[in-house]
Amino acid sequence: MLQKVQPTVTSNKYFALAGASTNTDLDQTFFTNELTGEYIKTNPTSEEEHRKITSYFKLKNEQFFVFDPPASRPQKIVLKGLPTSSDIQDIKSDLENQGYIVEKVARLTKSKTKFPLPIFMVELKKFPNSPDANKISKCCYMTVTVDTFRKSPGPTQCYNCNYFHHSSKNCFLQMRCLKCGQSHKTSDCNIKEKIENLTCINCNIKGHMANWHECPTFPKTKTKKGEAAQNRNYKNNQNSFNSNANLIKKDFSYANTTQNAEQRAALDRSKSVHSEPEPPKTQTEKQDPRESNKNNENNFTFMDAMREFKIFFQEFPYLIEMGKALRNAEKHTKR
Questions:
Q1: Strands 75-80 vs 145-148: parallel, antiparallel or unpaired
Q2: What is the spatial distance between Cα 49 and Cα 53, in angstroms, rounded to a whole number?
Q3: 177 near 186, Cβ under 8 Å?
Q4: Closest CA relative to residue 49, chosen from 7, 18, 14
Q5: Where is the Pre-C2HC domain (predicted)?
Q6: Tell me: the pLDDT tens digits for 146-201?
Q7: Which one, out of 58, 174, 237, 302, has a CA that is 20 to 30 A from the CA of 21?
Q8: What does DSSP assign to residue 157?
């Protein structure tokens, strides 16, 4: 089965088109060019033509980047259990001794504070009969666990040129620093302190870097089909105004509500004491709140207890007088 040859993307310069068309080593029948936004995408028909085109661009110092075919992309895993002080080269050497071809090892850090984490991202090259990366259990004399590397959401941004939708591995565009905009990597910049009012190298607006998600040039996530109408209906429901939501109801307050509830509870209590027993209630009759609380003791709250005490003293008011007399008695014999 033939694999699809990945395209070569160059900057929007007609020099690349004119040079490629006049070059005798490149046969125009084996590649096509198409304009995609600010770039020109060259689609070769074979790996050999792909190699010739990239070699020609390098010879002419043309700025371009290449997409890796899915089959040649490395397997990314995460190693957990190593100290943060572990040496990158030691990790690479240990994995190579276990039979793996390691392309890259990087220590992960927190996004905001850049605090180093005891987690290492490893890129392993795929090859026939390569050992299973999920079976790695030891590294640098430490017991480790392997997890799948989860890419952060959003578009890929190149660390080399700080443009989007490609990685720095196959980028031959001019380097651009996020801080000063000069031709070097951001990690190699001499500016180490925080810049108060920096300028974005993509939109030339002050106040943010080119990796800020709210930058005008930052690629926006495309909404899936069907989600746009759903989100629009949700916003309309959120913004709809209900004129009856905040109307003030007459004689409707917390005091009236609790007072009426207590009066009804006292009346029901007195009826149950002085009247004959009522027949069992049917399912259609409303059950007394206190009866439901008896069935479920977990729902008995402090307010329920105070309400029961109030009903009890209303039925036996002489207990309060007896309590006062006991408190005022001078001797225990009188009590």
A1: antiparallel
A2: 6
A3: yes
A4: 7
A5: 90-151
A6: 998 887 777 888 989 999 888 888 888 899 999 999 999 998 999 888 888 889 99
A7: 174
A8: B
